[in-house]
Amino acid sequence: xxxxxxxxxxxxxxxxxxxxxxxxxxxxxxxxxxxxxxxxxxxxxxxxxxxxxxxxxxxxxxxxxxxxxxxxxxxxxxxxxxxxxxxxxxxxxxxxxxxxxxxxxxxxxxxxxxxxxxxxxxxxxxxxxxxxxxxxxxxxxxxxxxxxxxxxxxx
Length: 155
What we know:
Elements (H helix, E strand, L loop, with lengths): L1 H10 L1 H6 L4 H27 L2 H23 L7 H17 L26 H13 L18
Helix pairs in contact: 4-5
């Protein structure tokens, strides 16, 4: 963040000098920075729980929420087909999400075979299996983290 600030001060100093600086602008900049912080903090969790395709489809909805804020805060007007496009995007996301396999997005092809015997963590195949088997048995999910190499039968 420091490096970006220095670059902005060097290359955009005229823009900064001519800009309007008040509480409202500061609030917008703070809100924008907070939104980016939340986005970049939660994106890795979404990648773990879902996939890049689901993430990209979800990004298409971000434009719609930006338009909603623009309408309410900046008094923008939009074309009448924009809400129809949003509904189509949400339908596509729903179809993609409902077309999952038993393990859903928990199975990662790049991790190879026997993922179910590996680490039990957020969004992993082992956690998905232990959670579903615990729900079927009627008691809480296994909370421990166990490490295996995928070739043993240890529990």
